[in-house]
């Protein structure tokens, strides 16, 4: 039963509403309209079709859904959209978030468990949202004696560096944030920041388990960095370019490079697992030995940010594997040339080639992510001396074998300009 | 001259280099050094040499800075700062640096390098394929000598590391009285 104050009077109620209306009108006249005029006078406005996008036109278009299409179309060409939404952060973070849920369900099914079940009606599909809310609500505890600036900055740096790798990945023809001539080198240069961040964060935590974990992370990432770069080098030899879009186009003209350099692809996969600190190479986070490794002292959203960063990194490395070895966005055209929706005509936004490319790229990337997740269900952790021995001795030799195969393919006239297998 | 990006990168590089020298916390000094190296990579990008810039980041930030930070973390810092710094020495050092910088700048401005290449803004990015071709054709002897030097030093390092390992195992064996 609703209650109201004892001295309630209808006239005062109406009066308060009138006061509200009065203040809204005052604020709109004194602040809103001058803002509109400042925008009109001083901000260079983007042209939409024939007209210039003024605030008035914007407000008119927002009311009518069919007239918002040109605005959306214009927004999709801006750099901000690319960085923040489609080939950039949001796309990577969405795939990373999906990966967390898929990982838990997939591993549970492999081990005859049920996995997350209660959040959401069907198979616990809201588990990720529940986890996110929990992490945001939890208190962030900074350990005593911790180095506060580094402790706060390292998680943010981790997420930003992961997102920086995502910006270099071409998802569809023309859909890449930064199309560098030295894209592949830039990827490896950025990946070089991760051991630095892990080491600094583990040191800043002022605790022995994180420090042991950080040292392990450093050893592991540096040991696997060389086979990682060398395995990508045979792809560079085959395609003759360091530009990632160029690598995909070289595969569109011949066949997927995994058929020519399978050993390099294998080494790249193993090194990616080591770079991502996934089982069987999860020594930096070995939870049965050193509590949680370099993540021991994390809590609340600091843990959330580090997990988000590591899953964005998982997406980035899976996407890099797809770009280098699995032909990027190559695939048969499944989207129709024309696409009509009943209520609002979105055909100006619809690009069949880009949609098709995105579909195939995403499917392949998910396949690779599943391959990254698979060892966690079936393999135990390996010893650190075996890990270092594998990195420094075996994988480097394997990559050299395939590099010579790639050179033979180029000089034998099978691939490369005017080769036998080039369409 | 008044390119804001150039000035920003210059302030970043020089400022973080000064922090790296001046800070009492060794770990912050090492981080500032890494940022300074990133600034140098930014200069390479401004000079249209992305290839060199990427290697600058990969080698100096990814490897050298990590090595320095790793070393700093393992060293006890109290022992290093037992002696207080002399203010006169510091002033003399800054004066000496200014004199050297000024004279080098004057030399460069007076030499033929000044203004010889005209405006850099319109030039295209240096193609690393051309660099590779030049390395393998005109500069091939230099490349071979560099490769031999590097290979020699790597083999020497391996030999040194190996001998040490063998003697230590022998030493242990003798101490424990094993004869095998």
Low-confidence stretches of chain B: 171-180
What's the CATH H-level superfamily name of the largest domain in chain B? NADH-ubiquinone/plastoquinone oxidoreductase chain 6, subunit NuoJ
Radius of gyration from the alpha-carbon trace of chain A, in angstroms: 27 Å
Helix count from the secondary structure assignment of chain B = 6
Widest sheet of chain A: strand order? Answer: 1-2
Please mark out the parts of chain A with pLDDT under 50 across 5 or more consecutive residues, or reply none: none
Topology as H/E string of chain B?
HHHHHH
Helices and strands of chain A, in N-to-C order?
HEEHHHHHHHHHHHHHH
CATH-derived architecture of the largest domain in chain B: Up-down Bundle
Helix/strand class of chain B = mainly alpha
Structure description:
The complex is a heterodimer of chains A (about 425) and B (about 180). Chain A has about 425 residues and is mainly alpha-helical. Chain A has one domain (about 85-335, about 345-410). Chain A is built from 15 helices and two strands. Chain A has a two-stranded antiparallel ribbon. The termini of chain A are far apart. The model of chain A has no long low-confidence stretch (mean pLDDT about 85). Chain B has about 180 residues and is mostly helical. Chain B folds into two domains: about 1-75, NADH-ubiquinone/plastoquinone oxidoreductase chain 6, subunit NuoJ (Four Helix Bundle (Hemerythrin (Met), subunit A), Up-down Bundle), CATH 1.20.120.1200; about 125-180. Chain B has helices spanning about 5-20, 25-45, 50-75, 85-110, 130-135, 140-175. In chain B, helix 1 (about 5-20) runs antiparallel to helix 2 (about 25-45) and helix 2 runs antiparallel to helix 3. Chain B starts with a helix and ends in a 5-residue tail after the last helix. Chains A and B meet through helix 8, helix 9 and helix 10 of A and helix 2 and helix 3 of B.
